[in-house]
């Protein structure tokens, strides 16, 4: 399957126009005429990710986090990023990144992680977007729907401690950090990754907010206000992107899909 055709399908599923303005999504490296037979999906493009892709003769890496954000003035072997880019080019491996557009899209990462918690209730979308956009690759106008935070309104209240247990089981993690006292909750907000910038917009609609990368003073302010925050962890809230992408890609791609899970950045001492 041509890289251009894969990009067209991904444009339909995760429209880049619902990504944050600061984000860098889409095809970051490679020739759209590449023939793609093997895809590696991952959270981050680390040195180990690149080595795995080369070893497995991968043609395309699809990552959640873009490995190119700021303007590049030179690509040389003097930097880690430069070495990764050069190695990918040498081995004709393309890179496509789906970041905040994957978070915000309908049936994207926020929805996928919320579903993993196995909670009964209806889901609402904060700052919902609903518009048509022209997919220049497929030459079609397409309906685009998405939004920022997901809010699960439970059919019945549950204890905070029970929600924490559900999170750890659903995401396969051993611990979370949280702020607030155990009490009954019903409205649960979620933004995967570092979603602290959404706290102010969502706090009036929820009882508890799940995200990663919470800072001390944000947590302190929330505790003083009587709110509840659960810090799942950045990696821990997003590493299942690989599972989501395997599901989405298998609907239109007949080649091999490799899921690569790198180790978490932080270790417990």
TrEMBL record:
Source taxon at top rank: Bacteria
Binding site for a divalent metal cation 1: 65, 103, 234, 238
Residues in the signal sequence: none
Gene3D superfamilies: NIF3 (NGG1p interacting factor 3)-like
Alphabetic keyword roster: Metal-binding
GO cellular component: cytoplasm
Single GO MF annotation: metal ion binding
Pfam families: DUF34_NIF3
Residues where a divalent metal cation 2 binds: 64
NCBIfam families noted in UniProt: YbgI_SA1388
Assigned protein family: Belongs to the GTP cyclohydrolase I type 2/NIF3 family.
Name listed for the protein in its UniProt record: GTP cyclohydrolase 1 type 2 homolog
Source species of the chain: Pseudoleptotrichia goodfellowii
């Amino acid at each position: 399957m041509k890289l251009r055709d894969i990009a067209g399908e991904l444009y339909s599923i995760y429209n880049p126009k619902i990504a944050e303005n600061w984000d860098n999504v889409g095809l970051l490296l490679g020739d759209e005429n590449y023939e793609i037979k093997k895809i590696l999906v991952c959270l981050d493009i680390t040195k180990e990710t690149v080595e795995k892709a080369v070893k497995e003769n991968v043609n395309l890496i699809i990552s959640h986090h873009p490995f190119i954000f700021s303007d590049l003035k030179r690509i040389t072997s003097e930097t880690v990023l430069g070495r990764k880019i050069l190695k990918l080019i040498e081995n004709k491996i393309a890179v496509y990144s789906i970041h905040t557009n994957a978070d915000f899209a309908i049936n994207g990462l926020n929805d996928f992680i919320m579903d993993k918690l196995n909670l009964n209730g209806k889901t609402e979308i904060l700052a919902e977007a609903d518009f048509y956009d022209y997919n220049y690759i497929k030459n079609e106008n397409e309906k685009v729907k998405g939004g920022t935070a997901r809010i699960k309104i439970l059919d019945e209240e549950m204890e905070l401690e029970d929600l924490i247990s559900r999170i750890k089981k659903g995401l396969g993690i051993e611990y979370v950090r949280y702020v607030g006292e155990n009490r009954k909750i019903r409205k649960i907000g979620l933004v995967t990754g570092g979603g602290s910038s959404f706290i102010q917009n969502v706090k009036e609609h929820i009882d508890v907010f799940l995200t990663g990368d919470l800072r001390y003073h944000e947590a302190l302010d929330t505790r003083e206000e009587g709110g509840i925050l659960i810090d799942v962890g950045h990696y821990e809230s997003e590493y299942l992107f690989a599972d989501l992408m395997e599901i989405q890609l298998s609907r239109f791609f007949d080649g091999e899909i490799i899921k690569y899970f790198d180790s978490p950045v932080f270790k417990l001492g």
